[in-house]
Amino acid sequence: MPVSSKQAEPEVVERPRSLQTLRERKFEFRSLVPLDLRCCNRRQIRAYFENTYDVDEYLFSGLADEQYINKCPDRLRLPLIFYLGHTASVYVNKLVLAGLIDKRVNRHFETLFETGVDEMSWDDTENYRMGGSYKWPSVTEVLDYRHAVREMVFDLLDREPLDLPVLTGHPWWSLFMGMEHERIHLETSSVLFRQLPVRFLKRPENWKYAPLSMDEPAGPNEFVCVPSGKVTMGKPRKFPSYGWDNEYGNLDVDVPEFEANKYLVTNREFLEFVKEGGYQRQDLWTEEGWKWIKFRQATHPTFWVCDEGCQSGCGGDLASYSHCNLAREGQNGTAVENGTAVENGTAVENGTAVENGAAESNGAEERNLEHKFKYRAIFDVLEMPWDWPVVVNYHEAKAFCTWKGPQYRLPTEAEHHRMRGNVPPSEDPQCDPVYDADRLANINLKFGSSSPVNMYPPNPMGFHDTFGNVWEWCEDQFNGL
Q1: Closest among 41, 40, 84 to 61, alpha carbons compared
Q2: Ramachandran quadrant class, 369 (left: phi over 0; alpha: psi -120 to 50; beta: rest)
Q3: Could you report the per-residue pLDDT of 406-459, keeping only the tens digit for each?
Q4: Residues 27/13, Cβ–Cβ less than 8 Å
């Protein structure tokens, strides 16, 4: 649903010179729906660009101090300052290639920030830009660059002829590529923030987490039978939103009858896998998955937090850091329960005060495994949201299915289309749920976190969260059609 063309004139954005300047800005926690590229106007494009640019900077305003922007939250990724500059540089590089601009903003930055880490495996070693003596530009220099790119895009929007529709091959396609690329990095950068020590962060004003649970728990994750049927996968070439090359094509698939759980697998369900030693049983893992287990020394999902000093996988001078240290993190972090922050490292759990990671209980009984874990969100350590979907990698998802039994596996992409209700692709944007601003789903920054699997009603097929909340692993390999 496009933004109304009758909105007020856009405000002039002051040049940010520091992360403190970003923290002082009043960001709005929202994401605009994509534009209909058959009928959008300059004002709507500018609003979508500003929303894209602002939400990215909103995330970076959550760093508690500028020194932390040069940290490496993941040994396979670059320091955070790279990603602040990278998303801006892509606009310039793509607009130059499209012939919409003939003058670069900063050639050095557009080379330095052009390409990230191109690792081919989870065990690649750090490259020279990740740490050590490599000198990155200052925060002020990168924020000045981002501001200059913002002004360049504004100038482009004011002067360049806009012929509709904007489809593949159109010069303006490059601008929309830059915007959708930056929105991808909002997701990937948020994961890097989750890997930083929580004491390096301060949740930005108005950033909203979903409730940890609903009034009623999710209950049993029952199976829903899906009758056999045909699905058509692929995005039509004339669909009026930006698309990546691997989205296009057309493939008809006959899908046999199958059954699938009505909910995403929750943290509570995955706890049973952990309790039964799933991370210690080689027979549950593929050959590559077991190599990953030994490499990472994993004993539970990455964003579960315990107090046993588990390896966190950070890079540079954070290589020895572990977020599985509730005593230390509790002193500097913030616990959040049902959306309410509890400061000073003290939370209340089942009526018992929990301070610095240790609970005072009658009889000083040892906590059972269910009470061992907390949950790392982007900016905070939370009480474990047992009804949120578990966040795991492909190896962990496959091992969980193997543990469940030989009749279990991940769904194929075609089966997932059947679970969605099999809405056939068309050239009408309304076939894409992201265009529905009122849709009952955790999409378009409804929350800055996952949400309970039973928060929204099931679709007509009987499944919850077939759109939104989290990405879902499929059994088959992802390829272009």
Answers
A1: 84
A2: alpha
A3: 999 999 999 999 999 867 778 888 888 888 878 899 999 999 999 999 999 999
A4: no
Say if residues 442 and 471 touch (Cβ distance below 8 Å).
Answer: no
The rounded distance, in Å, linking the Cα atoms of 297 and 55 is 35
Rounded to an integer, what is the distance from CA 448 to the centroid of its chain?
A: 9
DSSP one-letter code for 248: B
CA distance 474 to 409: 9
Angle formed by the axes of helices 173-195 and 42-60, to 10°? 20
Contact 304, 390 (CB under 8 A): no
Q: How far is Cα 385 from Cα 455, in angstroms, rounded to an integer?
A: 13
DSSP code of residue 294: H
Question: What is the distance between the alpha carbons of residues 379 and 333, in angstroms, rounded to a whole number?
Answer: 9
Q: Based on the number of CB atoms within 10 Å of its own CB, is 445 exposed (0-12), middle (13-18) or buried (19 or more)?
A: middle
Question: Which of 308, 468, 462, 334 lies closest to 388, judged by CA?
Answer: 468
Tokens of 210: 């979903």
Angle of the 139-159 helix axis to the 42-60 helix axis, nearest 10: 170
Which structure tokens are listed for 41?
């106007």
d(Cα 97, Cα 104) in Å, to the nearest integer? 11
CA pair distance 55, 193, nearest whole angstrom: 14
Q: What is the largest CA-CA distance in the chain?
A: 75
Instruction: Of 118-132, 281-295, 461-475, give the lowest mean pLDDT range.
Output: 118-132
Tell me what the pLDDT averaged over the chain comes to.
87
Q: What is the dihedral of CA 123, 128, 129, 135, to 10 degrees?
A: 150
Residues with Cβ < 8 Å from 67, sequence gap 6 or more? none
DSSP line for 332-347: HS-EEETTEEE-TTEE
- Strand-pairing partners, residue 266, are 389
pLDDT per position as a tens digit, 71-119: 999 988 899 999 999 999 999 999 999 999 999 999 999 999 998 876 5
Question: Among residues 262, 322, 301, which one has the least CA distance to residue 394?
Answer: 301
Model pLDDT for residues 5-14, shown as the tens digit of each residue: 344 455 556 6
CA 16/CA 149 separation, integer angstroms: 13
**Encoding tokens for residue 343?**
């400061």
